[in-house]
């Protein structure tokens, strides 16, 4: 709940500036006067042509994304009930903190609780769409991230690389002969910081590049040990699981946290619905600010 509400309140200022809220107008003719100050008259067309590019691109892509979400993910009574509960819980937190709830709503561009609930529903649909995308394209995602579960030992060679290599090779020989993994690590002074079985993907930025390369080259589903080396020492990587059916849920959860997954998801569905931009200003602004959504190129 807090994640969704944090996102909503974080983008509320931009949404307000983009006039994407609940503002209503009767002006439909682009040449009709929208506002007047002194002798200066501003039409709807003037506003469109002078809108900062980021706002124009945000409005157009935002509209397209909302249509995709609504087409792909049906709003159920259960989703509405969950959104109502999320709003109530958040309202209670605000009130308990001594803040005025109505002022908070209005400050973030919401005219009512119902408007906030509708946005909560949308973001719940949005996350459901990401789950659908990762599930429907699981084989591609599996190849892209090459996940494994593994235990990693490190043999520090900063002071003596030859000794580190010697210890790694002796430790590996014992493990391959059936010795206990942790006991062998202790015997040969291995760093056991990453000895616990852990889920890894080849884009994991916390891993040494040598290990990432090793993961990317694995092709078997067997349990086995592989080695890697860099300028600081040697590694033994004990691969404990590479099976799709056993790692599927963890991979989907992992992918859902990656910043680029939203772009990947919407690019997929925008292409599915043949998203096209015909206005040259909007096209250029989207290309500059949201290039992954421009699937017509």
Structural class: alpha+beta
If strands are numbered along the chain, what order do they take across the biggest sheet?
4-3-6-5
Shape: elongated
Low-confidence stretches: 10-27
How many separate structural domains? 2
Overall average residue pLDDT:
82
H/I helix tally: 13
Number of strands: 6
Rg over C-alpha atoms, rounded to the nearest angstrom: 27 Å
Strand content: 5-15%
Distance between the termini: 37 Å
**String of helices and strands:** HEEHHHHHHEHHEHEEHHH
Largest sheet: 4 strands, antiparallel
- State the share of residues found in helices, binned by percent: 55-70%
Secondary-structure blueprint:
Elements: H1 2-17, E1 33-37, E2 40-43, H2 44-50, H3 53-72, H4 77-96, H5 101-107, H6 113-136, H7 138-145, E3 148-156, H8 161-176, H9 181-187, E4 198-200, H10 209-216, E5 224-230, E6 233-241, H11 244-256, H12 261-272, H13 280-289
Antiparallel strand pairs: 1-2, 3-4, 3-6, 5-6
Helix pairs in contact: 3-6, 3-13, 4-6, 6-12, 7-11, 8-9
What does this structure look like?
The model is unreliable at 10-27 (pLDDT under 50). Helix 3 (53-72) packs across helix 6 (113-136), helix 3 (53-72) crosses helix 13 (280-289) and helix 7 packs across helix 11. Strand 5 and strand 6 (233-241) form a beta hairpin. This protein folds into two domains: 2-139 and 254-293, no CATH class; 148-241, Roll (Chitinase A, domain 3). It is elongated. The protein starts with a helix and ends in an 8-residue tail after the last helix. The strands form two sheets. A four-stranded antiparallel β-sheet has the order 4-3-6-5, with helices on both faces. The protein contains 13 helices and six strands. With 297 residues, the protein is of the alpha+beta class.
């Amino acid at each position: 709940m807090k994640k969704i509400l944090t996102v909503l309140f974080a983008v509320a200022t931009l949404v307000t500036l983009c006039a994407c809220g609940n503002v209503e107008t009767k002006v439909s003719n682009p040449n009709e006067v929208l506002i007047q100050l002194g002798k200066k008259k501003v039409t709807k067309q003037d506003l469109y042509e002078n809108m900062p590019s980021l706002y124009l691109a945000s409005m157009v892509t935002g509209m397209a994304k909302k249509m995709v979400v609504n087409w792909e993910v049906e709003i159920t009574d259960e989703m509405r009930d969950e959104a109502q509960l999320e709003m109530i819980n958040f309202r209670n937190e605000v009130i308990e903190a001594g803040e005025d709830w109505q002022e908070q709503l209005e400050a973030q561009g919401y005219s009512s609780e119902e408007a906030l609930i509708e946005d909560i529903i949308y973001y719940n649909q949005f996350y459901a769409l990401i789950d659908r995308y990762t599930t429907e394209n699981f084989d591609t995602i599996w190849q892209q991230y090459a996940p494994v579960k593994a235990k990693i030992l490190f043999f520090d060679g900063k002071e003596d690389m030859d000794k580190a290599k010697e210890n790694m090779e002796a430790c590996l020989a014992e493990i391959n002969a059936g010795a206990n993994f942790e006991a062998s690590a202790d015997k040969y002074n291995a760093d056991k910081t990453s000895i616990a079985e852990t889920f890894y993907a080849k884009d994991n930025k916390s891993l040494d590049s040598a290990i990432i390369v090793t993961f990317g080259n694995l092709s078997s589903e067997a349990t086995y040990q592989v080695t890697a080396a860099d300028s600081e020492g040697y590694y033994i990587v004990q691969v404990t699981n590479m099976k799709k059916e056993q790692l599927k849920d963890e991979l989907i959860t992992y992918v859902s946290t990656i910043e680029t997954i939203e772009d990947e998801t919407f690019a997929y569905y925008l292409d599915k619905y043949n998203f096209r931009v015909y206005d040259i200003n909007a096209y250029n602004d989207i290309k500059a600010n949201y290039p992954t959504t421009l699937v017509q190129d």
